[in-house]
Amino acid sequence: MNPQTVVALVAGTLFGAGLAISGMADPERVRAFLDVAGHWDPTLAFVMGGALIPMVVAWWIKRKLTKPLVAPLFDLPGTSRLDMKLFGGAAIFGFGWGIVGLCPGPAIADLAIHPRPALLFVGAMFGGMLLYRGCRMAIPYLTALRVAAETETQ
After folding, report:
1. What's the burial of 102, exposed, middle or buried (CB within 10 Å: 0-12/13-18/19+)?
2. Residue 69 pLDDT
3. What is the pLDDT of residue 27?
4. CB proximity list for 20: less than 8 A, separation 6 or greater
5. Pick from 81, 71, 95: nearest CA to 8
6. What is the pTM of this model?
7. What's the number of domains the chain is made of?
8. What does the buried/exposed string (b/e) look like for 35-70 if buried means 16 or more CB atoms within 10 Å of the residue's CB?
9. CA distance 102 to 30
């Protein structure tokens, strides 16, 4: 087994165990965390805050490395600008998270903890991704048809 696979398995196991132990995979606890105007449960703020500690260490170590320990090069996303696509996606994500109490990571972890409701959510999540992909692919085609139709009428 190559080193990248081992690191992925260890990281995934830690992530899944952490979600289960902390309660972040429990939709009721997540909804209580998001209910800041009602019976707010602040415990997940400590989980999120706790995630900052290893990330600060990881970014500090990354700055000292010329290449990753188990990969040929760093594969980091570029900085993107704040645009309507980002705000719209964040709003839709937040709306779904608030209604269901799950986001993608905990939902996948819940496949092992609460398989039936998690499977429904994960299936719908992939359905939403496929719908977006289909719409994104259709827009240039529909735009070209509209431009062609406008050109014919002129």
Report:
1. buried
2. 86
3. 86
4. 109, 113
5. 71
6. 0.67
7. 1
8. eeeeeebeebeebeeeeeeeeeeeeeeeeeeeeeee
9. 7
91-95-125 Cα angle (round to 5): 100
Q: Is 53 helix (H, G, I), strand (E, B) or coil?
A: helix
- The two counts, helices (H) then strands (E), for the chain are 6, 0
> Where would I find the beta strands (DSSP E) of 12-148?
none
Instruction: Give the residue among 85, 125, 86 at the shortest CA–CA distance from 102.
Output: 125
What is the pLDDT of the chain when averaged over all its residues? 87
User: By the 8 A CB rule, do 43 and 33 touch?
Assistant: yes
Q: Which domain holds residue 39?
A: 3-153
Query: Which tens digit of pLDDT belongs to each residue from 7-65?
Result: 999 998 988 888 888 888 888 888 898 888 988 999 888 888 888 998 899 889 989 99
Residue with tokens 């608030």: 98
Predicted confidence (pLDDT) at residue 6 exceeds the cutoff of 90: yes
Q: What is the pLDDT of residues 51-107, one digit of tens each?
A: 899 889 988 998 999 888 888 888 887 777 888 888 988 999 988 888 888 888 888
Residue given tokens 């719209």 in the structure block: 88
